[in-house]
């Protein structure tokens, strides 16, 4: 997956997660990596020191880290293979979308370029993972998106659910049970004040009231 002799698979994994988190943070706090990768503070600190020495990240004290151009180049092939593997696990092997993130972490270690190409062919060359995240091209380019957090959208807007930006299995199972997956069109009917819940109408007359823990991971495209 990583074509540089000084870049390990572990570095690629961290680089891909930093890339994802940089959409939220200008500099990614190490604590966010501890949470998202489920590793200790000591493990994160060791890896970030190695990545800095390899020229993959820059670190600003009291702020966090961000990828260098070399770090981005290392992250994109890893992101492609991981997200493509998630699609394969859902569409071909029948796993649930709440199961595949952790499974893909293990499965992808045995995937080479030949298997990656075959998985892409078998899944009709997808451009999004099951959670709606874009899949980089084989040439290492990330497709652009035109979406935004649901939390910042005005009441009354017609929307399409674009991405569910969490690995939390309970949230994914909950949204799956509600029928709220990427591609679903909906209308933001109401939002309670003081960071209260929101009410969505979708799939005809279905409604869902979602708290901020769920709203915060939903990204949408405006339809009007």
Automatic annotation (TrEMBL):
<dbReference type="InterPro" id="IPR036390">
    <property type="entry name" value="WH_DNA-bd_sf"/>
</dbReference>
<keyword id="KW-0805">Transcription regulation</keyword>
<keyword id="KW-0010">Activator</keyword>
<feature type="domain" description="Ferrous iron transporter FeoA-like">
    <location>
        <begin position="148"/>
        <end position="222"/>
    </location>
</feature>
<dbReference type="GO" id="GO:0046914">
    <property type="term" value="F:transition metal ion binding"/>
</dbReference>
<dbReference type="GO" id="GO:0046983">
    <property type="term" value="F:protein dimerization activity"/>
</dbReference>
<keyword id="KW-0963">Cytoplasm</keyword>
<keyword id="KW-0804">Transcription</keyword>
<dbReference type="InterPro" id="IPR022687">
    <property type="entry name" value="HTH_DTXR"/>
</dbReference>
<keyword id="KW-0408">Iron</keyword>
<dbReference type="InterPro" id="IPR036388">
    <property type="entry name" value="WH-like_DNA-bd_sf"/>
</dbReference>
<dbReference type="InterPro" id="IPR022689">
    <property type="entry name" value="Iron_dep_repressor"/>
</dbReference>
<dbReference type="InterPro" id="IPR001367">
    <property type="entry name" value="Fe_dep_repressor"/>
</dbReference>
<dbReference type="InterPro" id="IPR036421">
    <property type="entry name" value="Fe_dep_repressor_sf"/>
</dbReference>
<dbReference type="GO" id="GO:0003700">
    <property type="term" value="F:DNA-binding transcription factor activity"/>
</dbReference>
<keyword id="KW-0678">Repressor</keyword>
<protein>
    <recommendedName>
        <fullName>Manganese transport regulator</fullName>
    </recommendedName>
</protein>
<keyword id="KW-0464">Manganese</keyword>
<dbReference type="GO" id="GO:0003677">
    <property type="term" value="F:DNA binding"/>
</dbReference>
<dbReference type="Pfam" id="PF04023">
    <property type="entry name" value="FeoA"/>
</dbReference>
<dbReference type="InterPro" id="IPR007167">
    <property type="entry name" value="Fe-transptr_FeoA-like"/>
</dbReference>
<keyword id="KW-0238">DNA-binding</keyword>
<dbReference type="InterPro" id="IPR008988">
    <property type="entry name" value="Transcriptional_repressor_C"/>
</dbReference>
<feature type="region of interest" description="Disordered">
    <location>
        <begin position="124"/>
        <end position="143"/>
    </location>
</feature>
<dbReference type="InterPro" id="IPR038157">
    <property type="entry name" value="FeoA_core_dom"/>
</dbReference>
<dbReference type="InterPro" id="IPR050536">
    <property type="entry name" value="DtxR_MntR_Metal-Reg"/>
</dbReference>
<dbReference type="GO" id="GO:0005737">
    <property type="term" value="C:cytoplasm"/>
</dbReference>
<dbReference type="Pfam" id="PF01325">
    <property type="entry name" value="Fe_dep_repress"/>
</dbReference>
<dbReference type="Pfam" id="PF02742">
    <property type="entry name" value="Fe_dep_repr_C"/>
</dbReference>
<comment type="subunit">
    <text>Homodimer.</text>
</comment>
<comment type="similarity">
    <text>Belongs to the DtxR/MntR family.</text>
</comment>
């Amino acid at each position: 997956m990583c074509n540089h002799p000084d870049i390990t698979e572990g570095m690629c994994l961290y680089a891909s997660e930093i890339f994802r988190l940089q959409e939220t943070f200008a500099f990614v706090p190490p604590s966010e990596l501890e949470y998202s990768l489920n590793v200790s503070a000591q493990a994160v600190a060791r890896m970030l020191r190695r990545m800095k020495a390899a020229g993959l990240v820059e670190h600003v004290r009291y702020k966090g880290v961000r990828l260098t151009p070399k770090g981005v180049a290392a992250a994109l092939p890893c992101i492609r293979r991981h997200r493509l593997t998630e699609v394969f696990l859902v569409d071909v092997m029948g796993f649930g979308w709440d199961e595949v993130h952790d499974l893909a972490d293990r499965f992808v270690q045995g995937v080479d370029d030949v298997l990656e190409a075959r998985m892409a062919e078998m899944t009709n060359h997808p451009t999004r993972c099951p959670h709606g995240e874009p899949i980089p091209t084989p040439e290492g380019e990330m497709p652009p998106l035109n979406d935004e957090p649901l939390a910042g959208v005005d009441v009354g807007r017609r929307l399409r659910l674009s991405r569910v930006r969490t690995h939390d299995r309970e949230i994914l199972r909950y949204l799956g049970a509600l029928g709220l997956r990427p591609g679903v069109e909906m209308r933001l009917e109401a939002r309670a004040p003081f960071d209260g819940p929101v009410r969505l109408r979708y799939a005809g007359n279905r409604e869902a009231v979602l708290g901020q823990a769920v709203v915060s991971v939903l990204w949408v495209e405006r339809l009007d």
